[in-house]
């Protein structure tokens, strides 16, 4: 008789364990489904943030193109010829985007003005800009005036830019 009672208790425990396992499997399935939804939402959020960053960067570039001619004249004696624009330069078989681009004159010589606008300028941005400039030199030649513009440029990055002979402006120097 005690064996029958123990067997029934064991079967009851097994039934409860089986139910608990099924509930756990269902909870795990729901969790996996939620994770897939969150992953999709995160991808969408990253796309939105990148798009917003690009838009803010373009606005800064537009401000730079409008405000730099006066600054370049007063600070470096460069007279901008025409307008500074965002443009593409054909290098080999590809177009290279240049945020700030135009011609200028300094001491009677023609100079290409090539610049980059970033919301925050990091050392890696300067290095990427320098790689882009090396590509552009194959088409534009060596007589380039380089400039970077940012909403924020840390003192360390400012020193890094100075050491490389790249002019820079923080956005507050530009007219609104």
Structure summary:
The protein is an alpha/beta fold and 176 residues long.
Defining traits:
3 helices
Count of helix runs: 3
Q: Percent helix among the residues?
A: 55-70%
The largest sheet is:
5 strands, mixed
Work out the number of β strands: 5
Secondary structure blueprint with pairings:
Layout: H1 2-76, E1 79-91, E2 94-106, E3 109-121, H2 123-140, E4 144-153, H3 155-163, E5 167-170
Parallel strand pairs: 3-4, 4-5
Antiparallel strand pairs: 1-2, 2-3
Could you walk me through the main structural features you see in this protein, from its secondary elements to its overall organization?
- The chain is α/β, with parallel strands linked by helices and 176 residues long.
- The protein has a domain of 113 residues: Trna Endonuclease, Chain: A, domain 1.
- The chain has a five-stranded mixed β-sheet with strand order 1-2-3-4-5, with helices on both faces.
- It is rod-shaped.
